[in-house]
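DATA SHEET
Item: assembly model
Revision: 1
Owner: S.N.
Input lines:
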Amino acid sequence: MKQSELFFKTRKEVPADADSINASYLVRAGFVHKHMAGAYALLPLGLRVIKKIENIVREEMNVIGGQEILMNVLQPRELWEETDRWESAVDIFYKLKDSRGKELNLAPTHEEEIVDIVRDMMKSYKDLPFAIYQIQTKFRNEPRVKSGLLRGREFLMKDMYSFAESNEQHQIFYKKAIPAYFSVFKRLGLEAKLTEASGGIFSKYSHEFQVLTEVGEDTIFYCDSPTDECDFAQNKEIAEVKEGDKCPKCGGTIKMSRGIEIGNIFSLKDKFSKPMKATFLDKGGKEQAFIMGCYGIGITRAMATVVEIYYDVTKNKMIWPAEIAPYKVHLISLNQNAEAEKLYDELRKNNIEVLYDDRDLSAGEKFAEADLIGCPTRLIISKKSLEKNGVELSENNVVKIIPINNVLKELRKNNEGR
Amino acid sequence: MKQSELFFKTRKEVPADADSINASYLVRAGFVHKHMAGAYALLPLGLRVIKKIENIVREEMNVIGGQEILMNVLQPRELWEETDRWESAVDIFYKLKDSRGKELNLAPTHEEEIVDIVRDMMKSYKDLPFAIYQIQTKFRNEPRVKSGLLRGREFLMKDMYSFAESNEQHQIFYKKAIPAYFSVFKRLGLEAKLTEASGGIFSKYSHEFQVLTEVGEDTIFYCDSPTDECDFAQNKEIAEVKEGDKCPKCGGTIKMSRGIEIGNIFSLKDKFSKPMKATFLDKGGKEQAFIMGCYGIGITRAMATVVEIYYDVTKNKMIWPAEIAPYKVHLISLNQNAEAEKLYDELRKNNIEVLYDDRDLSAGEKFAEADLIGCPTRLIISKKSLEKNGVELSENNVVKIIPINNVLKELRKNNEGR
């Protein structure tokens, strides 16, 4: 994409109403537009990041047999009365009435709808097990929002629901979900800790995936073993340890940290299937309620978390992990558009995602914007570089001049290393 | 995908509450699940069709320079008061209040939000022209719904907005949008008529893309010229002709038909930019309001329209155009899973989308379901076909036995012909 044509503008000043690092950077870099408190529009650069995150999540959910569907935002009151959640979860619901006076809410989660679908379709143990997921816009009527895109009123989630004939069958899938989640987060460039947690409104059987960082909303106790081999971590909500304690698993030292919860997995047992009479016939011909699990990943939140972890305040820049960067390569022409355009065409022909700054601006302005945007690889074509018949390539803080003809080879080499 | 693992069930009976051909077929074939009147969940097969439609729309909008973003469902009252639409369009709004008493609606369209974004970002004629689109879930508080997925309360739309410095510059894009729309509809297998129409709440400058069929909600007068060269068509709303008249363009005969509006394009002039004070500095340094257009395609509606046009009631089947079929090939094993599985693996290795019926059901049950699902190419491996060392291939009502080793070649040949 030529930057002269890209629908985007950066801002020099920090937005007055930015409530977080992630919102400040994403707004200033032209990735998102603040619509109202807790709701952001995704502009072309931001949407590219989000789609890459979505596709990583899709790929990893498909690997463990997840099948994608798309459920509804509008939810009829009757469905949520079946599980007694119409009144109880009222504080996070957006409730409304349609023109006929029918009461609705905007779905903050989809256990009710998926169970309604499954009870209409699946009747036999032969249909089990299966797991269904969607990537969908969710709504939470948060009284206050203060963390930018980390906690919004309108945001994208991947939510998956598993159905099994028994707790044993359920556990098999639950245990497959854990490495699939780690694969997702690794590809997003995020190191997550599997953390024992309370199930909130669900049950006591749950795990959260926490990214440790000062700006997290949760308090996490984890083992800081010198060998890094112990995976003990507990949310404060249920913690049996405190800072400085010995780790009950390995004898290492317990540390306290803040965490951003970027994913969670719950065993639901028959909590939803039983009241909704979602049953199947087991091998013996007996009616049984489905044993369920649910598995969430915040898509918008994942993007915001990456910003929080990877921004560089001293250089005023974002740094995107290669797999979710809006463009892998940022090609910057310093008044050398004839040569730059040739390279741009060559990169595109070879399916390399490239943002090409072809604009008539000063080097300083171009570099400042490129810093903000944060593509992992930068190519600069200048009079100076061309004198050496070359291009300046910067990547991972290494800068070198390489011959123009070697750019493709170099990019491919670096890509393989990842 | 192995059909034994696919999250899907067909139904033999027509759903009692089906209000249309499209809903009846899509529900019975397991493509969608009815959630409530006017809202359907997309199950795996239905979501595959929708994603293919979305990608065709994306490709064609990108060709004419459209850039994709994603705006918000929640809309604050203040924004819609700027254009005086909070009260006037009240009949199709879902309105609600959040926990702080703030008034919101669920977006049925996005002129207000896109103008708000653009006025924050774009200040100069140098930024113009551009066109921005999104594919997003829309909401309309319809008092009655009676056409299945043709007219829902919650549905997917592609909406694009163009911004120009003058009416002349606007017209250039408007005229590019028309062939782009025809390309979309052609790839969807739909023959559309460009129809003059009133702009509804917008202005008198608009065109609709109408698919002529008995079940359409609109009345269309069009020229039935014997040479098929005249493109005269008008919506009844503004028609200057009636059935049997001479076509004012070519002298042919005017016919009346029902139409399904699957797309529309509007010239908006400064209708939204002026009240919202969305201005840029023109070449002379003078402040001007942006000249806008908007361009819609109903994504969910397009799927429903294809069903209405292509279903075959005598054979109780759907027939998907190849480019949007949930799977291109339906491979059916009649108790020959060892041979079928080999072919299945070969097709997948060669990136051919194949649904493989590996289930332990009778030939009759398998064929009835395959008819309902409606993949364009069917391969049957049976004892009979294997006796000839072959596979039965049916496509476009032609059935033949071909050697197993030729299947790939045959599929590729047929694909090129499209």
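QC remark: The CA atoms of residues 89 and 243 of chain B lie 33 Å apart.
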